[in-house]
Amino acid sequence: MINTTNNIYRIAIDKLEKGPEARVLERRIKALGYDVSVSLSRVYTIQHDFSPEQVEVIANALHNPVVEAVRINKPVAESFDWALELGFLPGVTDNVAHTTTEIINDLLKTEIGRNKVFTTSKLLLSDAEELSEDDVKIIAQQLINILIERFHIKSYKKYKAEGGMDYTIPRVKLDSEAAVLEINLDVSDEELVKIGKAGILDPVTKTRRGPLALDLDYMNAIKAYFEKEGRKPTDVELEAIAQTWSEHCKHTIFAARLDDIEEGIFKRFIKRVTQEIRKELGENDFCLSVFKDNSGAIIFDDNYMVTHKVETHNSPSALDPFGGAITGIVGVNRDTIGFGRGALPIANIYGYCFGRPEDNEILFRGENRTSPVLPPRRIMDGVIHGVNVGGNCSGIPTPQGFLFFDDCYKGKPLVFVGTIGLVPRKLPDGRLGHEKKAMPGDNIVVVGGRVGKDGIHGATFSSEALDKGSPATAVQIGDPITQKKLSDAIIKEARDLHLYNCITDNGAGGLSSSVAEMARDSGGFTVELEKSPLKYPGLQPWEVWVSESQERMTLAVSDKQLPDFLELMKDRGVEATVIGKFNDSGRAIVRYNGREVMNLDMEFLHDGLPKRRLVTEPYPNVTEEADIKVENQQELFENILGSHNQASFEFISKQYDHEVQGTSVIKPLQGKGRVNGTATVLRPVFESKKGIVISQALYPRLSKISCYDMAACAIDTAIRNCVAVGADINHLALLDNFCWCSSNDPRRLRQLKDACRACYDYATTFKTPFISGKDSMFNDFKGYDKDSNPLKISVYPTLLISAIGVIEDVRQTNTIDLKLTGDLIYVIGNTMDECGASDFYHAYSKIGSKAPRIDAKQARKLYEKMYELHKKGILSACSSVGAGGIAMTLAKMAIAGQKGASIDISKIPNESLSPEKILYSESQSRFIVSINPENKKAFESRMGDFSISRIGIVKNNKFKVKNKNKTIINITISDLDKIYRARFRDF
Description:
By secondary structure, the protein is of the alpha+beta class. The chain is built from 30 helices and 40 strands. The strands form 9 sheets. Strands 17-19-16-20-18-21-22 form a 7-stranded mixed sheet. A 7-stranded mixed sheet has the order 35-37-34-38-36-39-40, with helices on both faces. Strand 9 and strand 10 form a beta hairpin.
């Protein structure tokens, strides 16, 4: 029956044959112990006054008649046992619904308005007559994320009696009137701590709003400020200060006095090394913008610069993997769009640290088995899908990434997402592309998406450990289609038309962050908060101010520029609204319907937070070296090759579009065998032969031995990966992403200090400046096991180093795949007894004590020589030796080329090591190369100052390793390939 009373229509699209989505659902349900058959429909519920003919037009546009059938307000005819419908909770971003709304508007030349279309998935469960409704509820709860999704169940009998599923419209109901609270801070220290930790007490619900992440000294500083002001703070003011002072935004640990380092470890080690390198480089300095904008930038050529930024989205991804990941990737895209006058996103990168996907042990955030944590496989699937949707739907290639698995990431994953941008060094009107400034008198203009409750307390939430107090409102879902329209309108048109003076993204803290940060240039601002466009009515003023709803950017637009800017945004379908003015008053003022709800001194808002004084203590290191006797070398080799951190993750590379802008040179999968590479190369400007090279590296397990060596290895490997494909170390820059744990623990702080020292020491020697970075300091999970025992899981102190450089000629690059039978195989560099925290030791659940050590001066000379070899075309194949050592590097080179190799490891210079240590040592600064025999003399003569050894030859189809006259590994390339792909074959 058609529901004509409320003009509600249900358009159901049924698959004519069972597709992969239904089969995936069947596997997931079977894993729960229920062997059922699933048929799947997608449903569009539309509330609008349409004629039947118009609904037919809409339905025809939403399905493919070759493989799908459509039903309009009709139940299914076939029999089944249970119907289960899954959809978003009210107010959660529904991207498919947004796109469908635009399709309808375009088709019918109308404007139906917001929140008129809603999408759901309907599952019909057959062969399920023995299931009770409670069983189906269990299935539903495992298929959804209860923080953002809902479900509805009907038996076949009820479905038939009621004519199908219900016509449900998920409306947000916020009945309370807008109110601004005055907060009494003249209370005990105990109460101040409660406010700082759990948030403001709501007078109606008598519950706390959520974490402000303000320590007692911060709360006392705020209290003293308002005593001088002679009044109580409003809730808007307190929330704004909490956002601005959060660890996420102010990096208070990096800025704190640490031991005797008064200026803090960021200024002492990270910022200082870049300043010193740039000074030493002089006129050869290739940096343009470092540590002062949304991204860092280096020179690409005379006309362009390239930008790079890597973010983390760990806490949101733990709560809602899809939403956390897509928000992370579209958010770092906006960091690029908001760099300087605006950069075009040209590539995304990713990196994921997860718990083992087969680990099904359930953890809980709350006592008595309440608030279950998503298992690692659910987190992994959701995160991978989120970055897929964010990048693919935005038309941005995603050519580079990595996976790393360890049980320490099962409570809270690490999700790294980055974006590279391209921007002219000089714009058409002569302005420099990396300079921007909001001027007094400029209009504050917000463009893109609207404001909702999503993302509230995101900045303060991510500054704390994940526990039972973590707010569901911190979850957001990005809309890449809306953002793509915004990006194109800004970067491809408004920027070069000089229609704005400054731009930044609405990231952590929303308007509170973007407006207040931009106003540091002008000196102040006033905002009329009621003018901010809302997703739905009923939001409180403080929620509007700090909401992190996505796809929004803030611009400074002069009165002269404003008419043309607003007209362009309207023509391009991008909502743009003036909400205030920048000024030079020295005050941050927000009004709501004429009432002043915030009036803060700009200096206090940005710089009034007390400087922390922190101390460190020595931390225990593993000092016992592992004693392992390998009885079967072939078995060990196959075990490591098929392990979580060595196996192919082609299933990700195949679903992430890396060709969309037509710039890929060295792709994520290399050679005929499609092996995941560790570096990629792009050609962003078609008219130029120049390329961009990118890579990443991390060694989390080394933190058990030495955080100094952990950081050093990450730096050397990120650089070496780039050098292996053809990069010039003299035009290479670094980014740091510190993901630490329990950073209020003096021992963890000593680890952090050691890692930062290594960043200074090795960047100095390599002459590779840091241009951008990010830290996430409390990656801990506090909760309960299945028996309600309290537990805490902390990630390893993890430092991701990303490298970006410029290659003069992309034709002079190289890949890892062995290419020609008869090519000679060499190892470059020294192999030592350095298996500490290696994949070899991990195979035996050991850590060891001998961390790799790096001679950076000699390594730098080698990397310069490697660049020369690439330019001369001497190398046939080249690979950096990384995790898994020589054995894994050779295996992947063979798989990539679908070529065999005959290797004698006794030819490798070493310290009289056992065969397994020669094969799996993770000594740094090494390469494996293959050389056409015709280039043997040229290669060896150029490498006279370096340790090289010819260890074998490229063969046809056998991978054979011997130690002198004894064969220890013998396997066909076909079997090698199977082992490499087996672990994630069905993902």
